[in-house]
Every structure is written in C-alpha cells, then in structure tokens.
Design goal:
Elements (H helix, E strand, L loop, with lengths): L1 H14 L1 H12 L6 H10 L13 H11 L8 E5 L2 H15 L7 E5 L2 E3 L6 E5 H5 L1
Parallel strand pairs: 1-4, 2-4
Antiparallel strand pairs: 2-3
Helix pairs in contact: 4-5
Length: about 130
Amino acid sequence: AIRSEARLLHRMAATGRSRVSLQSQRRSLTIFSARKRLIEEFARNSCVIIIGETGSGKTTQIPQYLYEAGCTNSGVIACTQPRHVAATTVASRVAEEMGVNLGAKVGYSVRFDECSSFETQIKVSGQHCLLE
C-alpha cells in the first residue's frame, strides 16, 4: 500500500496536480483562518503558546507562515518533534508543500541523521537535537 501511494504521489507531482491539491489542503486547515493574527502575535511577542486540535495544521503551517512573513532574515525557524520519525515526516511534508527538495530550504536533524544545508531556513529537529 505504501509503495502504490508513493507511486501515485510521484505521478501527481509529475503532472503538477499535487501542488494545487496541497495548496487547497493548506487553505482548508483550521489554522489557516488565524494566519494573519498568528504572524502579528509572533511579531509582537517573543513567546507565543498555540493550542489547537490535532490535525489543525499547527506543526506544518506555522513554520511556513513565519517563513512567508520573512522571519528567517535573522536565523532559522526551528520546530521540535518528540520522535525522530515525526521530525522527518513533518520536514518532508513541509518541503513538499513548499515545493522544495528536502534538505534545501527545509531540513531536519534527528539523532544520527541530518538532512539540511547552508540554505536551510526551516529545520525540524528531534528534542535531543534542540538541547545539544
């Protein structure tokens, strides 16, 4: 099932339908309606706590909103995940939504594995990497 899903995603990407579908999925997430307010809150405050339902888009969308608002001018946007599988999956999804190769503008760092470059602007890390 996983292989056939990967083949379908590859075919969709090749035809350009995937990008349109991903953008419509992004707009349908609960957090999308709060995009402008979130960016304003991040600009005004050094610490913002966000509470939302599972699947609302907190993990994948907020780093993209910050990137789109130019928040990478002074550094990298960091996002932590409790498990390395979650970190790599989130990084992969964000890269796919942004239409970039994983390891370029979007990367990850987990124990014993790093996929990033000098141009990485959004980095998803396992908790241990943030502490190091």
